[in-house]
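Hello,

I think I submitted the 3-methyl-2-oxobutanoic acid job twice by accident. Can you confirm which output corresponds to this input? Input:
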Amino acid sequence: MKNKSDKIIFFDTTLRDGEQSPGATMNMQEKFRIAGQLAKMKVDVIEAGFPVASAGDFDCVKNIADNIRGVQIAGLARANKNDIDTAWNALKNGENPRIHTFLATSDIHLQHKLKMNRDQVLELAVASVKHAAGYTSNVEFSAEDATRSDLDFVCKVFTAVIDAGATTLNFPDTTGYAMPDEFGAQISYLMNNIPNIHKAVLSVHCHNDLGLAVANSLAAIKAGARQVETTINGIGERAGNTAMEEIVMGLKTRSDVHKVVTDIVTEQLHPTSRMVSTITGMMVQPNKAIVGANAFAHESGIHQDGILKERTTYEIMNPCDVGLTAGSLVLGKHSGRHALKDRIATLGHEPLTDDELQKVFTRFKALADVKKDIFDEDIEAILMDIVFAIPETYKLISLGAMSGNKAMPVTGVKLSIDGVEREGAAIGVGPIDAAFKTIAQITNTTSKLLYFAVSSITGGTDAQGEVMVRLQQDDKIIMGQGADPDIITAAAKAYINGLNRAAYMKNKHKK
Ligand code: KIV
Ligand code: ZN
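Support: Only one job matched these inputs. Its output is below.
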């Protein structure tokens, strides 16, 4: 192995490849919050977006590069001057900014997509890397669809782009096609057949089409890759990307096998996962490794008995190491403003303004009246609703529903629409269907409901229900979320949140 360092570089692409998950579009403020959280977790590189893709993407990357410190910020660019120039304009004020340029190397892509031969691809890759290296010494080159490419051709391209100034070479399994043994062998082959590989870091970027992204990335690390590209919760194009939390904990828990180190603050894994799922509306499946609700839940009596006797009988990781605070009672009806303020700070949020704190406190008191114990997750949900909310074109004033196994479900809703009150009522298959129909009627909007999920934020029958919806309006997919102890109200809030996001995006594009 020619690459000696034991440190694994974490390149997080939640804001770029992760955002390519259908419906996971994030606004500038949301991307900025996630970037701040990733920096706190000490990832090494944040891929903040694809600046040439849209003016919005450019602004998001620029905002992150201009303001987030202590982490390298990368921007994606196809292998052409305009993409690279645009990426650099967005990145240039960042700390050690990285231009990430890519070009496909597989014959399938060359023939059908690029309509170029191998010599042309080689020439363009070198010219693009040289152009990027004119701006910064931090240049990453990705050979798109590398795992289905002729490996000798990839070696040739990588050797040439290192000479042209690339300092990171990324070997993506773009279609999620590779098998772990094969992928590890491909990485070994590159390590042994690129004469100047010691001048660069070899990276991998795996997709999860066959459910092997994490296994493939770990195999690559064993074979000498020293950068791994990941997303939080494994979100991303199609079946997603390598899940950061799984790689981090795999490396930590089995350090006896991997013998590498990372800088990741593992206690931030759970808060980051929750932030990404609430912002994107991509819920984490309960049995998801590391961050799923059941990841540390022991159901069987034999297991519970073992855990009580000695935690390590059935737990290979300590839940505290991944930042799991669920179940910790924090506040109640008698807690005051100070306790709430302290708790918000402990959860890692920036101090709120007096006005924000007052609004959060009022909501907290209202919740504490109907729900005895207030958990961290409840506070996060209130913050999401009040402090991190997007501008509200539509505001829920009141909702009343009637349903039952013998009654015709009917829901009445009163909304404020740009300050003007409107109300209506409709019948539906159930009270939530009736609420959605009423809201569509009085807002005069048509959206197709693609996805609806309800879960409880914490345990107990008095828990807040959290609803996520995904709506389609024309060709746009928008997510919405809402939380409330009453699930019909939570569902209505989620639907209205989706409409507000759609209105916000439309207004932004008009400007
Ligand atoms: O999957 C892929 O090949 C990519 C590249 C742009 C790195 O996302
Ligand atoms: Zn990808």
